[in-house]
Amino acid sequence: MTPTLAVMGDLLEDVVVWLHEPLAVGTDCSGEIHRTRGGSAANVAAAAATLGAGMVAVRFLGCVGPDAAGDALVAELVGRGVDVRVQRRGTSGAVVILVDSSGERTMIPNRMASGLLERVDDDWLDEVDLFHVPAYGFCAEPVGTTAIDALRRVRAAGGVTSIDASSVGMLESWGRDRIIALLADLAPDHLLANADEAEFLRLLDQPGWAARTTLVVKRGAAATLVIVPGDEPVEVPVSPVPEALDSTGAGDAFAAGYLTALLQGNTPEAAAAAGNVAGGLALSGPGAL
What we know:
By secondary structure, this protein is an alpha/beta fold. The protein has helices spanning 40-51, 68-79, 143-156, 168-174, 176-186, 195-200, 209-212, 250-263, 268-281; strands at residues 4-8, 12-19, 31-38, 57-64, 83-88, 92-99, 105-112, 130-134, 160-164, 190-194, 214-219, 222-227, 234-236.
């Protein structure tokens, strides 16, 4: 039977601004604007549906507004082969993303309806083999309580769980000790973080992770670090990228590559290699598409 990946979290509009010159406060700046479907969880689901086509079923769980923007966001994700299950309330959210000449991005999110997801029906979690939640999903209510509840329900039903640390800025606002305590309590089977997030959360110094959680630390162009409980750390090389135009969604693409590879029976090390390739592909165009 085809394994199922479910992802819970944001489904938003991305307004991606490619700056052609440094941002100058109080005047005009040269650049170009791209409007795309975004949201960390939706990005993972869309990329996973492409990477795992025919081999992995992908389900997205979230909330959008009962508005034209919500209709368009859902339709775009459905068009990519994702089983989309959303509640409809509030107003659909958006993120403004400023991308500089090096490809680095700065995000200004307004998640709005994405934070309004309430407890999901049991059938939304039926037959889920791997359940993934970006930590953005913990930073508002009621979606935070909903995500924690869903992770526990999937675990109780025998499914595998995964969390992405998502963003240092978001983690800082949420509180280091608070998120560390939550991660220790949830004990996800897989925890993904970039180097800055891992340092902020002191993940390499948390002895509790060794007991259950496979830790994957993305380090940009440097090798990805994979620590499987009970094994020695392994470094997985990253192939050079000719030109990094836009880093938006690269971490989400990595997650999609990693998770779909796991569901196809690969080791975490091999899954990280697949994630590295997917993350590199995401650097070549505007936004996470």
